[in-house]
Amino acid sequence: MKLPSLFRRTPFRLTLLFLALFVTTASAVLAYVYLASASEARARAEAGVKSEVEALTAVYRTRGLDALNQALVDRTLRGGSYLYLLMDKDRKTITGNISTSPLDPGEVVQGGRWESFRLTDTDDEGRVRRRQAIGVEMPLSGGEQLFVGEDIGDIEAYLARLTQALWGAMIMVLVLGVGGGLWVSRGVERAMGGLNRVVGAVQEGDLKARVPDRHSGDELDELGQGLNGMLDRLEASMASIRHAGDAIAHDLRSPLTRMRAKMEAALIDAEAGRTSGVDALGVALDETDALLKTFNTVLAIARLQAGGAPDPRLFDAADLAVDMAELYEPAGEDKGLEFSAEIEKGLMIEGNQPFLAQALANVIDNAIKYTPEGGAVMFRARRRSSGEIEFSVTDNGPGVPDEDRDRVLQRFVRLDNSRTEPGSGLGLSLVTAVAEAHGGRVQLDEGPGVYDGRGPGLRVALVLPPANAAMDNSAGGSADA
Questions:
Q1: What residue stretches are annotated with the HAMP domain (predicted)?
Q2: Regarding the domain delimited by 219-304, which CATH topology (the fold level of the hierarchy) does it fall under?
């Protein structure tokens, strides 16, 4: 038979486990308390009986049997918990507050015989009771037998009441513990039910479902917040995938249509003898290469976002910056731009050098592409005061409006002033993916401003954590320029 879900919850099981441990521990403590108390009571009783025996035997030795008899009569009349019995050589009673010795006749033992026994008497209501007692039978020098004992029934009754109270407290704790476990388990079941409902809704395709915040600050709230964050990322990723698919279809429609038109025109020209098939195939190959480049860039971005930077290695970013400056300086000069570089030494980082090289190439290429002839491009590589490594490219081209700077980092986004330039709108999105895969970020700021009819320009900074902090997504730092 399957138990209700409430009893199968982990909190309820843990409650039962802790209760079982408590009962075991409490039982052990109770047993120890009982045994220790009983042992202490017996030891005190034995000490009292020994004291009485020593006093009475001293009376017998110094003053004789009659004095001992009188001492016993006096003690009996005073009352108390002590039991006295004086017997002659034939074990007949001489005096005492009990009629017969509770000990069976036996051989005479020097120092007396100690025994625990049950004392039978009646209470005020006439009920027969058997009470615990302890005593010693001591032989006297004249052959008489002296018995001295103590009734410890009151102590035994106290221990019984104590044990009963402890067992009652344990039962109360068990009841309260089980009730508390059920209450906690029900609360957890409600909270987990909310989580399960959200998971079920997401499985059904509802990416808008979210876990409500209970404002308790416990681990279930943290789990709910983490699940909501994950769903936010998932929803954003799905929206990005849909947007990317739409953008790919939109951006590839024109080149595919153009390719088909050119191939159709080339076929007509080839049939009419006005051109050769080789030229037509060359045009088709150029268009195909552009399409493949777009697809490869999209795949590279997806790879970085899914698994981070592959094969990270420690290297000096200054060497990479020098290579990029040497590679793009001729391209800047060919366009009539002033291309300069400022590179610090000893910029150790951990990452994938080919991906970082591609990201820097995209940033520098964009600066050269969109800066008009006669403009300037500055490439820097330095260590920030926070310890982060920064690559920055500053130009005095038309720049990017402040409201569009976040948008241009997304895939397939091209501003109006760039529609006439070749490209797919994937350059800066690849740079962003590379930065995030290395635990860094991309910052876009205004360039040097408007001067002599040019500007305001754009400053693109790729900020990465230094070695030993690389691949840590929590890396931050000051945004000093």
A1: 186-239
A2: Helix Hairpins (1.10.287)
